[in-house]
Amino acid sequence: MVEQLENLFTEFKQELEKVQEQAAILNLKSAFLGKKGKVSEVLKSLKDCTVEEKKLIGPKANEIKGSIINLINEKLSALEIEVINQKLAKNRIDITAQNRYFKSDLLAGGQHPVTAISDQVKDVFLSMGFEILDGPHIETEYNNFEALNIPDDHPARDMQDTFWFSDFKHLLRTHTSAVQVRGMKTHKPPFRFIAPGKVFRCERTDASHEMVFHQLEGMLIDKNISVGNLIYFMKQLLSSIFEKDVEVRLRPGFFPFVEPGFELDIKCLICKGKGCSVCKQTGWVELLPCGMVHPNVLRHGGIDPDEFNGFAFGLGLDRLVMMRFGIDDIRHLHGGDLRFMSQFSSL
Ligand code: FA5
């Protein structure tokens, strides 16, 4: 009977060679292993065998059944792979093919210059270990003013004309400094982060002022931080964006949330310092106000000012872009004129 089983196995292998379709393979399986299959037929006479014979035949039968199942499964999965490959070959997609609707007189999409420069600035700060934080456009009066050492009746509130919501507790954030409080509350010092984004001010537009523009806030809190550290980081930022030496000046600036506070101005690259509408005939453009974080602000953020200190800055991104590309009116940047934007489509 062992010989019979071995012959059956040989027969099975020959039959398997001949079949190529899934249904035929499954039929072959039941022809050999099914209840009325060839292997079962042979094993029917097992009852007439001696115990010794049964000991030999039993394992052999199991071995052959196992081998048949393995061969069937191998063939089925090889078939499945072949079917997938055939489909792939048939449906090949050429991802380099040109859009058939593409016409050379249509503009290809590109990054907005503010996005491109913002990404570059982010890269510079990421490489210096800064984290990137995000904050909402609709802010609380507390985050935008109160926690930044600008209480209700403080005249500094008038420095930034605010779009208020009717409850007078919420507003469209006037600066990204509102993210400072959020950052301090969610991080344990030492930490360093930047927070780029849109800000909103209810003011008249001109060559260097928009109502919706972009800032990039930065904050670094650690022990024993000095103005020297602040200046180092600001220089790193400007030299990596302009890739050349640009003339800057640092002068005292007043912001209630920093002490001391500075205005970092850049020599106007539109008029080379001679005076124009962008720099309001002064030859200098306010770009990067900054300073050492005021102890009251640290306290609002839950940080002990006797243990930690640090600096913060609020980069005017649109003006940086104007200086970088020689754009003489901020309104071109957000006017949506494709003739203007197409100059930057390769960014
Ligand atoms: C502020 O908004 C402070 N939050 C900056 C700051 C942060 C100081 C941290 C100290 C520490 P200011 O209002 O000057 O400051 O605005 C910052 C920058 O945003 C300006 O230097 C300028 O580059 C840009 N900016 C301000 N107003 C406008 C505007 N209307 N349109 C375009 N850019 C503007």
Attribute tags:
41% helix; 17% strand; BirA Bifunctional Protein, domain 2; 347 residues; 8-stranded mixed sheet; alpha+beta; two-stranded antiparallel sheet; binds adenosine-5'-[phenylalaninyl-phosphate]; elongated; 10 strands
Explain how this protein is built.
By secondary structure, the protein is an alpha+beta fold. It folds into 2 domains: 2-90, no CATH class; 113-344, BirA Bifunctional Protein, domain 2 (2-Layer Sandwich). It has helices at 2-18, 22-33, 38-43, 51-90, 113-127, 141-144, 178-186, 227-242, 295-300, 317-325, 330-334, 338-341, and strands spanning 131-132, 138-140, 170-172, 191-200, 212-222, 248-252, 258-267, 284-286, 290-293, 309-316. The structure holds adenosine-5'-[phenylalaninyl-phosphate] (FA5).
State the order of secondary-structure elements, H for helix, E for strand.
HHHHHEEHEHEEHEEEEHEHHH
| Integer-rounded radius of gyration | 37 Å
Q: CATH-wise, what's the superfamily of the largest domain?
A: Bira Bifunctional Protein, Domain 2
Instruction: Classify the beta-strand content into a percent band.
Output: 15-25%
Oligomer: single chain
How many separate domains? 2
Low-confidence stretches: none
DSSP helical segment count: 12
Distance between the termini: 80 Å
Share of helix, binned? 40-55%
Shape, please? elongated
CATH architecture of the largest domain: 2-Layer Sandwich
**What integer is the average pLDDT?**
91
How does the major sheet shape up? 8 strands, mixed
